[in-house]
Amino acid sequence: MKIVIAPDSFKESLSAMQVAQCIENGFKSVFNEAEFVKLPLADGGEGTVDVLLQSVEGQRLVKSVVGPYGAKFLAHWGLLNQGKTAVVEIAAASGLELTNPARRNPGLSTSYGTGELIRHALDSGVDKIILGLGGSATNDGGAGILQALGARLLDSSGTVLPRGGAALELLDSLDLSQIHPRCRDVEFLIACDVKNPLCGPHGASAIFGPQKGATPAQIIELDSALRRFAQVVEQISGHDHCDTPGYGAAGGAPLGLSLVFDVQLLPGIDLILSALNAEDIFSEAQLVITGEGQMDNQTLQGKTPYGVAKLCKQLEIPCIGIAGSLGSEREELSDYFNATFASVRAPGSLRHALQEASENLTQTAANVARTLACGQQLN
């Protein structure tokens, strides 16, 4: 019997590989002769580089880049496919977790460091770049990325604008004469799991600005600044992206990227599954097990377990979800999962649950395996 274990991480407790190992340990205590294939996953957010490097031969690289507020950070990125594909996470260079929550200010934060990683990838000669947008601290429409790639953002007097989303309100023109020459040479895939537009009440500033530190007044200012950026981009590209679905991701980063790359926005988990040739790995499996920290109806909005279950449904393979916890609204999960289980044993503090995550997950996996074995005997 072939069992594929393809989970995401359990946030703040277990990496995707650790989750997969716990589930394998539990199942092996019952099905010790089964063939187990571990396929740790991510959906384009933090951990995407490491997940791909665990499953595909490649190289993890580290570069010193400008962080979201100007301080230098060591940020990682990956090279796959004999150096032909680069994988970059916006969280690694321009991420929310790189700064103290009390100091967050999306009017000042910049995606410049992500642009530096992209520039390094272009310099290395890649012909494809995969960019994960999850976890950004920025609201600059990808302007910082453009600046790192050689663009000059100018006000009406021809003065170069400072970095950050608030400065875009003064944007008058863009000088792309010094943009990196290889931008149009590469395939550019963006792992994007939101459908929010760039501007408006459902846009980048209104929906994601507060978690990045934006005040109500700043939200209005940042939305106006992104709208101004979109107007200048339209003058160059001929495309108005204020209402384009997905362009509100990562503080509007797809907008700036679209100006110099031929970008494709794809659901993150679908992109990762394709990069890992998951359909081939799933073939001939009798069971696939997936999971994440919490599963509920929101899981079906493009998260890792949903992508796995959707592929299993297509291939007619049973799929079980094992989560740290199950949310109160989970009735829609049965449309895609044969069964779902929570691994938290008893009510308690979050800290306690995180500390026991490995033990609880292993024991839950073993109990699920025993249930399956019992079903086989009854049949």
Strand-helix topology:
Elements (H helix, E strand, L loop, with lengths): L1 E4 L10 H13 L6 E4 L9 H8 L2 E9 L5 E9 L4 E5 H5 L17 H12 L4 E5 L10 H6 L3 E3 L18 E3 L11 E5 L12 H5 L7 H22 L15 H8 L2 E4 L1 H8 L2 H5 L4 E4 L3 E2 L8 H12 L3 E5 L1 E2 L12 E4 L7 H6 L1 H22 L1
Parallel strand pairs: 1-2, 1-11, 5-6, 6-9, 9-10, 11-13, 12-14, 13-15
Antiparallel strand pairs: 3-4, 4-5, 7-8
Describe the structure.
This protein has 379 residues and is an alpha/beta fold. Helices cover 35% and strands 18% of the residues. The chain has helices at 16-28, 48-55, 90-94, 112-123, 143-148, 204-208, 216-237, 253-260, 268-275, 278-282, 304-315, 350-355, 357-378; strands spanning 2-5, 35-38, 58-66, 72-80, 85-89, 128-132, 152-154, 173-175, 187-191, 263-266, 287-290, 294-295, 319-323, 325-326, 339-342. A 6-stranded mixed β-sheet has the order 3-4-5-6-9-10, with helices on both faces. It has a 5-stranded parallel β-sheet with strand order 2-1-11-13-15, with helices on both faces. The longest helix has 22 residues, at 216-237. It starts with a strand and ends with a helix. The model has no long low-confidence stretch (mean pLDDT 93).
What is the compact description of this entry?
The protein contains 13 helices and 15 strands.
Main pleated sheet: 6 strands, mixed
CATH class of the largest domain, anyone?
Answer: Alpha Beta
**Percent helix range:** 25-40%
Biggest sheet, strands in spatial order? Answer: 3-4-5-6-9-10
For the structure shown, list the relevant keywords:
alpha/beta; elongated; single chain; 6-stranded mixed beta sheet; Glycerate kinase, domain 2; 379 residues; 13 helices; 35% helix; Rossmann fold; 2 domains
